[in-house]
Every structure is written in C-alpha cells, then in structure tokens.
C-alpha cells in the first residue's frame, strides 16, 4: 500500500470510507451528538488516525454536505442543462437530481436535514438557496417560452418539484427493487405529464 494521504493508516479507511461512516453515525446519533471518539470506535481506529485525514468533526460535516452540493451543481453544468429549450433543460435537471439523490443518498439526506446551527451548515444552506434560485430561474424561463402554465409562481413551482425529489430521502432505500432510472422516470412523468390518464 502506498503512503499517499488517501491511503495511509488502517486498510479500508481512506477519506471516502471515513466520510461514509461519519455520515452514517451522524444520522444515527445526530451531528451534535456524535464525538470523534464515537467515530473512532465505529471505525475501529484511533482518533489520531481520523485526524490524519481531517482536522475536525466540522470538516467531516463540510466535506459530506459539499459532496452532495457539488454533485447537484455539477448537474447544472451538464450540456443537457445548458443547451436547448428551457423545459427540456428543466426536465434534465429534475431527472439528474433524482439520480444524484439516489447515488449520494446518505450525503443528500444529511444536507437536507441540517438547520444552520454552525458556520458550515449556514454555508451549505446558502449554497442550497443558490441552487434553488438557479432552478427557479429555469422554471421562469420555461414559463416565458410558453412551455409551462403561467398562473403558478416559478419559485413555488421549483420548490414543489424539488419537494417531490427530496421526499425520496424519507422512503427510498437501496435494494428495494427500483433502479434510479425507474425512479427518475416516474418522478419526471408525474412532474411534467401529471397523473391524469390520457
């Protein structure tokens, strides 16, 4: 094994696996109720081994919520999110956001449950608001193009769309037999085509 920063220490506990375990413990005990000692016990390593990767528990939180946020913002930079009619771009953003949520479920769940009790959380909430604002602008653009109904506020439409997407954290569990593509397809059908039989 090499001695690079991501691979030093007990085998199997690089920064990525450390983050996965930290997020799991944060979900179980709450961020404030989790100590570095708790994490070390769960990992079966010393606290100093954790400090090799990160300087603090707060940095673990920052890296975890940034992982979710970076994945969501990356969706907005994809070619299908930047080119073409606004309604098609919005459809792509919603579909891909569902896929990000499924792929990064523990990290997105943590992001959606923070309340702004620390600087890291307030920064994450500010980035979430920025993402929501950008999606709201896309909704407004689709309305302006005549692709969406005009009698609903774009910001409200955006919140409702992503309320549906974000609700997945409450019920979706991997290995339930639904693929992320099937979930994304269903969400976009309901969001863009409605439930009425045609």
Automatic annotation (TrEMBL):
Record feature DNA-binding region, as residue ranges: 35-54
Keyword terms: DNA-binding, Transcription, Transcription regulation
GO molecular function: DNA-binding transcription factor activity; transcription cis-regulatory region binding
Superkingdom field: Bacteria
Domain HTH tetR-type: 12-72
InterPro entries: Homeodomain-like_sf, HTH-type_TetR-like_transc_reg, HTH_TetR, KstR2_TetR_C, Tet_transcr_reg_TetR-rel_C_sf
Pfam family, one: TetR_C_24
Protein name: AcrR family transcriptional regulator
